[in-house]
Structure formats: structure tokens, C-alpha cells
Write a structure and sequence with these properties.
flat, 0% strand, Tetracycline Repressor, domain 2, Arc Repressor Mutant, subunit A, 2 domains
Length: 250
């Protein structure tokens, strides 16, 4: 695609496509998502996308400057699918846990697109909403601004990283996934204690656990660390207030 994008107000197509569908940015993104899951990154060709939409490929320039612009829109839509269904409760830890799990599930629902978009910064509406929301949860919980940004960064990178990792695995052919999962039982579980005592001692747990994503456990560890840090911040603030009242200088 080129730089010939048309302003939003002028994007509405007057006539339906050959398939009787009126083009829109949302329809193009939805179609691109489907094609990516079916064909991988090669689906983001103007010709293939136009054919799937029943439209002249050049008409896509009315909505996106180039394929990377479309990829950013796809990445933002994946964020939007999480933000549209997530509802905060006021419990910062429970809210972030729920949001993280939903982000991870959203990546697994579109594994190929998640792998392609997990490292992108879109600067678009849903990403901005997510940044504002997560920082609001952390600041509302009592984290100072610098700490809120630090935990926001760790939280988002962890969710995106695990989403990409587990999505890459999910995108593998089923026989390949099954073969890799079987390695824990066929290889690791059979290693002798004489040469590999720690693997042998934990083999049953390895076989049971390694077939699943470790993201929920990693997320809980991060949130536990954040809760511990918040407790220290609160104690320090209480101590400072007490010292101010007594005039004691530490």
C-alpha cells in the first residue's frame, strides 16, 4: 500500500463490493484477521485482501496507507476485543489478574495475528484506552507514579510475551504440538535419578505441568510482588506521617 490514505470523512464507499458488502475499516480489519489465521503473514497482501473482500485492491488505500498501517489496526483491534469485555470491580489485584488473563486468552484466540502484533506500539484508540486504564488501576491502588509506570510496563510486557509465546505454540501443526508435549513423558520422565536426580524427583510434576501455559502462575507472582511493594509503600508513608507528628527525624 502507499501513502494515499483518504480522510475518515471521505472513506465511506458509495457502492457495495462485488459480494454486496459496503467496505469499512472494521470490515477490512476483520477480514485481514481471518486471512492471517488461515494463511499467516502472507495474507496481508493487497491483492489477496481485495479478493477476499470482493473489492478492487486499490480501494483499500482509502482506509490504510500501507500494510503496516493495517497491521497496527489489527493489533489495536486485538486490544479492543479485550477492553470491550473487561469490567473493573475496584479490587486492583483482581482487576489486573482478570485483565491479564483476558489479554492472554485474546492472543490465543488469534495466535498468528498475536505473534505478528505483540511487539507493536499502535498509538491508536484501544491501546491508549488500555494504557490509561491500567495506569488508573495502579495509581488508584496507591502506587506512586514512577512505581505505577514500572509495574504497568512489567504487566503489559509479561502478558504480551506469554501471549506471543503460547500463540506461536498454538499455531504449530497439531502433530508437532503433540510430539513436543510427549517429550516430557517420553524423555524427561525416563531420565534416571542417578544422573538427573532433580528431574527424576519432579518428573510427575513436569509431565503434568509443562503441557500448560505458565502465564497464570507468572501473573500471580508479578501481582504478589506488586502487592508486597504496595504494602511497603504504605508502611513507609505511615512511618513518615508518624515522624512528622512527633517531630522525629530519622
Amino acid at each position: 500500500m502507499s501513502e494515499r490514505v483518504v480522510p475518515a470523512a471521505a472513506r465511506q464507499r458509495r457502492r457495495p463490493t462485488k459480494q454486496g458488502v459496503v467496505l469499512s475499516e472494521g470490515l477490512i480489519v476483520e477480514t485481514a484477521l481471518r486471512l492471517i489465521e488461515e494463511h499467516g503473514a502472507d495474507a496481508l497482501s493487497v491483492r489477496r485482501l481485495g479478493r477476499a473482500l470482493g473489492a478492487d485492491p486499490s480501494s483499500l488505500y482509502r482506509y490504510f496507507r500501507h500494510t503496516d498501517d493495517l497491521m497496527l489496526a489489527i493489533a489495536d483491534e486485538l486490544i479492543g476485543r479485550t477492553m470491550r469485555i473487561w469490567r473493573p470491580t475496584g479490587d486492583w489485584r483482581a482487576d489486573l489478574r482478570d485483565l491479564g488473563l483476558r489479554m492472554h486468552a485474546g492472543a490465543l484466540a488469534h495466535p498468528r495475528a498475536a505473534v505478528l502484533s505483540s511487539y507493536r506500539v499502535t498509538g491508536r484508540a484501544y491501546e491508549i484506552q488500555a494504557v490509561e486504564t491500567i495506569l488508573g488501576v495502579l495509581r488508584g491502588a496507591g502506587f506512586p507514579d514512577a512505581e505505577a509506570v514500572r509495574f504497568y510496563h512489567a504487566f503489559v510486557d509479561q502478558a504480551l510475551s506469554f501471549g506471543a509465546l503460547d500463540s506461536a505454540s498454538a499455531a504449530m501443526p497439531k502433530p508437532a504440538r503433540a510430539a513436543e508435549a510427549d517429550v516430557w513423558r517420553a524423555t524427561y520422565a525416563r531420565l534416571p535419578a542417578e544422573t538427573h536426580p532433580h528431574i527424576a524427583a519432579t518428573a510427575g510434576h513436569l509431565v503434568a505441568d509443562m503441557r500448560h501455559s505458565s502465564y497464570p502462575a507468572a501473573l500471580d507472582l508479578l501481582l504478589d510482588a506488586a502487592a508486597g511493594r504496595l504494602e511497603k509503600i504504605a508502611k513507609s508513608a505511615t512511618l513518615r506521617e508518624a515522624n512528622d507528628e512527633t517531630g522525629y527525624v530519622s
